[in-house]
Amino acid sequence: MKTKMLKKNYEFQKVFAKKNYYGGKYIEMFVIKNKQNVNYMGIAVSKKSANSVRRNKIKRLIRENYRQIEDKIIEGNSYVILWKKKANVEEANYYNIKEDINKIFKKAKLIKEE
Asked: Residue 29 — φ and ψ, nearest 5°?
């Protein structure tokens, strides 16, 4: 099932309000149940982190890493994935983000057991 994107501010705020927080070295994630059998995901990178080119690159890397594990993820959740403001933007590469995303989704128990 393809994940739908959160785009509106109020959609992000709804996820932030529940306080189900999981943090990694570079990425943090907020999760809520959405009572549907579809996942919704939002990605945000603060303007204070980097310029627009770097921010968009980070978002693309997060999206690609998410796509790799999308079929293993349990349906019925909404999440917002944030790049940590204190994380070094120079270290934003495919492998660091992949490690972080896998760790966070396992910690949140959102990956289906084989």
From this structure: -140, 135
Q: How far apart are CA 1 and CA 20, in angstroms?
A: 23
* In the block, residue with structure tokens 């999760």: 31
pTM comes to 0.89
Identity (one letter) of the amino acid at 34?
N
The boundaries of the domain holding residue 62 are: 4-107
Q: Residue 26 sits in a domain of what CATH number?
A: 3.30.230.10
Q: What is the pLDDT of residues 11-24, one digit of tens each?
A: 889 888 887 899 88
Residues 6+ apart with CB under 8 A from 32: 14, 15, 18, 20, 77, 78, 79
Residue type, 89: V
Residue 113 lies in a domain: no
